[in-house]
Amino acid sequence: METNRFRTLISEGRLKATKQREKILNIFLKSSGHQNLAQIYSQVAKENPKIGYSTVYRTLKLLTRFGMAAQRKFVDGETRYEPIAGGSHHDHLVCLDCGNIIEFENETLEILQNNIAQQYRFKISHHRMELYGRCADCELKKEIRRRKR
Q1: Is 120's pLDDT higher than 90?
Q2: Considering only Cβ atoms within 10 Å of each terminal Cβ, which end of the chain, N or C, has fewer?
Q3: Which long-range contacts (CB under 8 A, 24 or more apart) does 136-141 make?
Q4: Do 84 and 70 form a contact (C-beta atoms < 8 A)?
Q5: Beta strands 69-73 and 91-95: pairing type?
Q6: Is residue 114 within 8 Å of 126, Cβ to Cβ?
């Protein structure tokens, strides 16, 4: 289904439809989490070593433009990409120690954000929430280190 959507968007944009772009799309959509360009390229190169790094980069930019991928920069400043499922939305908890990124959805927060926007007569086009702190594993490790002192 996403491949057909991609083909339609390519055609409407009068861009060239290539097997390489479709291969990158399919590999990207099967990926999970938040991956940087090098990680995605590595997956692509395993399946087709003839696809270049710049082709993967340009295709990810295209997917972002088409709304099929989200480009994220967390506290470390590295650009990561994640697939966007039609109409779904989630937010992120980011561990400052290990870099783990936890995705979460909370309908109560979404309703609250919409209510606030409505109160101020503000039309939201999009948003993102990133909460930074320490994950449970890193907090436990810190507590263990503290007890050993």
Answers
A1: yes
A2: C
A3: 137/98, 137/100, 138/95, 138/97, 138/98, 138/100, 141/97
A4: yes
A5: unpaired
A6: no
